[in-house]
Each structure stands twice: as structure tokens, then as C-alpha cells.
Amino acid sequence: MAGESNQIVLHHQPKEAISTAPFIEDEEAKVKKLTRLVIVGQFLIGILFIVLWELLTKLKIMDAYYWSSPSIIWNTAVTAFEEGTLLDDLLYTSGSTIIGFILGTFFGALLGVSFWWSYFYSRIAEPYLIAFNAVPKLALAPVLVILFGIDFSSKVVLAFMMTVIVTAIAAHSGVKSVDPDLEKMLFSLGAKKRHVFTKVVIPTAMPWIVSSLKINIALALAGTIVGEFISSRQGIGRMILYAGQIMNINLVWVGVVVLSILSIVMYLGTVWLEKILLKGRKRG
Question: What pTM does this model have?
Fold first, then answer.
């Protein structure tokens, strides 16, 4: 009987051990699950906001003349799209914003990392960089529009001016964060200055440059819209200004909603670009 009882105990122990073992959830699966929940929550809040907006205007709690309604905004947008004006204005605004953003980010990054090559050049140029950053670039918009004309180029220049200094300051901060002891060690081992620049300085400054992308895309869009407000033949900003002048509030709201969607799409684009540029760094 004792032998049988021992066999029974031994037989049941593995099952108890298995049943009481803690469940370890895969971290990557957990992150994906949370991401899906966040996306679903964002969509639900957006849908709830639209439904409440529509109901409040239908019940006349909100004045539909000033606040319009999602259904009226949709119908107005469809009409503008079918006439071809909305698509043309959207392409005009997004094109000038993206081109100015790319040029400003690229040349700003080049300017910022170039300070590494010379201490004296860096010390002389830094105060002017900070001073120019303090200048309200949007206040110069009328001058830039007069200088470059009311066409596409002036909007690109405005978007460029809004982003280039921000990127340059971010890149310069990245350059100053390079470990000087690592530089000395590499130089003592026979590395050339260009080798240290490409293998150490640029990788160190890259996260600083990438961190400015999300700010830059919003600044570039703001510069483009201000340029269109001042003088333009096309663009969402021109459409909003024109709609306000003729008291077409529904068309104004179409422009506001389109700009909101455009800013979200551009922000998601910078997030995607950030993942590409920093690919492998977190794992490393």
C-alpha cells in the first residue's frame, strides 16, 4: 500500500506543477495586442465624436450655421472633389509641404553635423543659429511671398525656412553628444577624420535628427498654409480664405477637416520614416 501511495503521489506531482506554473506572455505579442487596442480605441473615440457632433447639430443644441455638421461637410467635400478643386488644392498644399520638409530636414542636418569639423566654425556660427531660430519666420512670410512670387516656390521656401533651423539645432546637439574619449581612441588607432565622421558622428546625431521630424512636418505645413493665406492661386489655405470671404462656412470646415486629415497622414509618415532610419538601433 505504501508503494502504491508513493506511485500515486509521484503520478500527481507533475500535473500539479504544470497547473501552478506561471504563464509567461510573449512581450512582442503583448505589445502588438496593446497596439491593436489603442488603434481600436482611437477609432471609437473618433466615431463617437462625429456622431455627437451630428446629433448636437440636428437637435439644434449647436448652431449648424457656425459649426456645420459632418454630413453637410461630407456633401460639400464630395461636390468640391467632383469639381476637381479640392483634389488640386490638396495636391498643391501637400506637395509644397513635403518638398519644403525634405529640403529643410536635409540641409538642416548637413548644417548641424558640419559643426563637428571645426571647433571655431561651430563657436562662431552657433549664436547666429540660435538668433535666427528666435526670429518668427512666419512674420517674414509676406517678404518671402513678394520675393519668390505667389506661386508654388514661395510655399516651398516658407516650409523650408520653418524646418531648416530646427533640424540644424537638433543635429548640432547630436554632434555635441559624441563621446570625446571615443574620438581620441579612434584617432590614436589611425582612423581618419572622415572615418570618425561617418562611423561615429553621423550615427550619434541621427536619433537627434530623427526626433525633429515630427515637429518639422507640422512646422512645414504651417508655413505652407500661411503662405497660401497671404497670396496664392491654389491650396487648402487659399480655399479656406476664399470660403471665409464669401461666408461659405461649410467649405471652411471642409478645409479644416482636410488639413486635419493631412496632418495626421503626414505625422504617420514621419513615424514610418523614423522606424526606417533607426532600424536596428534599439535591438543593438
Answer: 0.82
